[in-house]
Every structure is written in C-alpha cells, then in structure tokens.
Backbone:
C-alpha cells in the first residue's frame, strides 16, 4: 500500500494556495474551481486543498526546518520553533545517525502543520 493523497480543509482557496506555494516552495500542480480544489505534488503524494475537507495535522518533510520557518514567518504563526525531538540510532523511523528536527506553524486557514527535517548532528 502507498499513500496517494492527503486532504486539508481551507476556508479561502486563494489564500491557502498562496500560503502553500510559499511553504512548499513550488506552484500548485492543478486547480479545479469550481468545485474548489487545488493540488500540490509532494514527491508523488498529492496534497489536496479543499473547502469541504476536514482539518488534518499534516507533517511535511523539508530540507531545513529553519529555512522553511523563515520562508513563512511573515505569513504564518510559528507555534513551535525548530527543535530536536529524537536522534535516530537505526533506520526504524528515520535515517540512522540523524537528528529529527520539528517545528509547527498554523497555516493561513488555522490548520496546524508540522515541519520535519533529518539532519546530521
């Protein structure tokens, strides 16, 4: 089995599209309005922004949590600054020998979004 798509609730499709374009540092893959759907490609998994979708807590892998926070600091509430949550000894949940950094922001629609990066200490 493979994850194909994650849906995220939005109130304002344009505002949310602008936010995720900055956060993901890439343009949307497709937009269908009506009915009010925007898709982003996350390396083979679709992120769907939709007015009718429920809220979700989405964790997005980024190359560098600190850089991602700086990109969105002016358009998002930083809920939790970048911090190390775990050092991976083996490859069970992340690359061995890497620290797992996380930070959390609220997107333009009030959804909590986790940002995750794996970095060598």
Residues:
């Amino acid at each position: 089995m493979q994850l194909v798509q994650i849906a995220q609730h939005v109130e304002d499709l344009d505002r949310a599209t602008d936010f995720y374009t900055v956060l993901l540092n890439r343009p949307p893959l497709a937009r269908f309005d009506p009915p009010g759907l925007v898709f982003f490609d996350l390396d083979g998994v679709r992120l769907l922004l939709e007015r009718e979708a429920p809220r979700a807590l989405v964790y997005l892998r980024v190359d560098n949590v600190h850089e991602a926070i700086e990109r969105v600091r002016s358009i998002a509430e930083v809920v939790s600054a970048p911090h190390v949550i775990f050092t991976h000894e083996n490859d069970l949940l992340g690359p061995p020998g890497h620290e797992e950094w996380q930070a959390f922001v609220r997107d333009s629609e009030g959804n909590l979004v986790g940002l995750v990066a794996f970095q060598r200490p």
